[in-house]
Amino acid sequence: MHQDPPPPEKVAETAAALAELLDALHGRGMESLPGGPVPPSQLRALRAIERSEGINLRALAEALGTRPPATSRLCDRMEADGLVRRTPSASSRREVELWLSPRARRVLAEIRSARVRELQEVMQTLPPDSLAGLSTHLGSLQAAIEQRLGSSSATGSETEESDAAGPGTGESGAGEQESSAA
Q1: Which tens digits make up the pLDDT trace of 55-113?
Q2: Is 38 left (phi over 0), alpha (psi -120 to 50) or beta?
Q3: Can you say whether the dihedral through the CA atoms of 154, 152, 92, 98 is positive or negative?
Q4: How many CB atoms within 10 Å of residue 98?
Q5: Which candidate, 51, 38, 114, 116, places its Cα nearest to that of 83?
Q6: CA–CA separation, 175 vs 167, rounded Å?
Q7: 85 DSSP β-pair partners
Q8: CB 171 within 8 A of CB 165
Q9: Which of 12, 77, 92, 175 is the most buried (most CB within 10 A)?
Q10: pTM (global) more than 0.90
């Protein structure tokens, strides 16, 4: 007997509810970070910079859906916290490029690691056939979200594995990967 698939709206509602539960689950792990919790606005900005190392303030503001002055203040705080570096743009004297610091890479890796641990505990309670289906379908959902974001690596795992942490740093990426959007 063939069962009709649920309407996309119903699946979207379930996915949105799941995203809220994941936020709550992951929020518990933020308090245990060695340097303390990273505010959500900074975490979003760090992920956007990670996806586009060398991004300028205007492009970061667009990616975050914020105004450039607010983005500049956010970057001021992140720079003061040792999370980002600003370097003069090679193409324009009026622009700066934003790069993750080694500390930011460690923070993102720690966050991803904590999230994976939390999710592994939950996944261990599921039957094997559910895990197989989740693996397939979550991979499809991840690819669709990455396409919507216009990025081949919305999670940043390719960026982390590369040796380019920014000009002149000599630092390499953390090498951690995440299995869900961090």
Answers
A1: 999 999 999 999 999 999 999 999 999 999 999 988 888 899 999 999 999 999 988 98
A2: beta
A3: positive
A4: 25
A5: 38
A6: 19
A7: 99
A8: yes
A9: 77
A10: no
Instruction: Give the Cα separation of 65 and 85 in Å (integer).
Output: 21
Reduce the DSSP state of residue 110 to 3 states and report it. helix
Q: What is the dihedral of CA 134, 179, 161, 71, to 10 degrees?
A: 120
Phi and psi, residue 92, nearest 5°: -150, 130
Answer whether 173's CB lies under 8 Å from 108's CB. Answer: no
Tokens of 94: 């009026």
The amino acid occupying position 97 is E
Separation of alpha carbons 81 and 113, rounded Å:
21
Q: How far is CA 38 from the centre of its chain?
A: 13
Distance between terminal CA atoms of the chain?
39
Residue identified by tokens 């000009």 is 167
**b or e along 19-40 (b: 16 or more beta carbons within 10 Å of the residue's beta carbon)?**
eeebeeebeebbeeeeeeebee
Q: Quote the tokens at residue 180.
A: 């869900």
Structure-token pair, residue 58: 């205007």
Nearest-angstrom CA–CA distance, 138 and 179: 10
Instruction: Count CB-CB contacts under 10 A for residue 18.
Output: 10
Q: For 126-156, how does the pLDDT look when each residue is reduced to its tens digit (9 = 90+)?
A: 998 889 888 888 888 889 888 887 753 444 4
Interatomic CA distance for residues 45 and 101, integer angstroms: 13
